[in-house]
Amino acid sequence: MDVSDRVYRIALIEDDGPLRTLLSRHIRQSGFETRGFASAAEFRSALIEQSFDVVILDVMLPGTSGLDICRWLRQHSRVPIIIISARSSHTDRIVGLELGADDYLVKPVDPGELVARIRSVLRRADRSLGESSDGLGVVQFEGWRMDQRRRELYAPDGSRVSVSEAEFDLLCVLSDMPQRVVGRELLLEQSRDRLGQSGGDRSIDVLISRLRRKLGAVEGGRELIRTVRGLGYVFTPSVQR
Fold first, then answer.
1. CATH number assigned to the domain covering 138-235
2. What is the C-alpha to C-alpha distance for residues 33 and 21, in angstroms, rounded to an integer?
3. Superfamily of chain region 3-128
4. Fewer Cβ atoms within 10 A, N terminus or C terminus of the chain?
């Protein structure tokens, strides 16, 4: 089977039943295979039979905590880990990341943002392994085509448009959350690998400006990235995968 046709398996460990059902449904509808667990014990038992491509961990679990599972996983696996937690302090976030989590999301969790972060950690994981494809295939919008496997962008007339690595990463994040406001903080966080630690709001604004020029340069092109003053940006077109 071609890597681009692969269905990624997501483990969601969350003891809140309604929240687990809501998030699992949204992740599944976004094209991933999802399996939910109410406790760390259930999850560890499942690992005997099945592996996962991303693990989403609640911190406050009955019995073994999510942080303990995070530590245990990192000792045995390189699987991407996303922590979801009601704890929003800077210290809690640092602890989770230092234990080996790849991302940290504070409750209440927006299902769309969670899916965007799943795609982001998958892209980073595949690049770190030197793979030629991130398995997320081709994204299309307003006649444009973005090949995430080859990291190439094509205009509606079929011509290839040159974009930097940082611009491509930013476009991936925006297209993961179409028609909704994406804050500068999230865009900066997801683009940190390309921008470096010195990157700030101004860096994101510059990248957005460059993308706008390139996306609007085609004949009949329109503004596809709209500014929401004080909040962030909206990627306006519908997206097909």
1. 1.10.10.10
2. 13
3. Response regulator (3.40.50.2300)
4. N
